[in-house]
Amino acid sequence: MLELHAHTTYSDGTLSPNDLVLKAANAGVQALAITDNHTIAGRDEAIATAQELTESTGQTIENIPGVEIRVTNRG
Predict the structure, then answer these.
(1) End-to-end Cα spacing for the chain
(2) DSSP 37
(3) How far is Cα 51 from Cα 74, in angstroms, rounded to an integer?
(4) pLDDT attached to residue 73
């Protein structure tokens, strides 16, 4: 299972990167793209959590780098 569009508290999500990775892994997600709005600030936390999860349980979750950006055409 993949989740390719997820937000954390670094934008308009309700979970920290740590909590999002753990919740996704618990739900059986094998690859997760955190795509916060206009920031990659939670990326390092998500990667560290995924590594800790693998080391402690053997369960892996792939982190896919992403960011959501909004652009507008002003004429």
Answers:
(1) 41
(2) B
(3) 43
(4) 82
Long-range CB contacts (< 8 A, 24+ apart) of 38-45? 38/11, 38/67, 38/68, 38/69, 38/70, 39/10, 39/11, 39/67, 40/65, 40/67, 41/10, 42/8, 42/9, 42/10, 42/16, 42/17, 43/17, 45/16, 45/17, 45/18
What are the tens digits of pLDDT across the range 2-60? Answer: 999 999 999 999 999 999 999 999 999 999 999 999 999 999 999 999 999 999 999 99
Q: Apex CA 36: angle with CA 12 and CA 69, to 5°?
A: 110
CB 39 within 8 A of CB 71: no
For residues 67 and 42, the answer to whether their CB atoms sit within 8 Å is: no
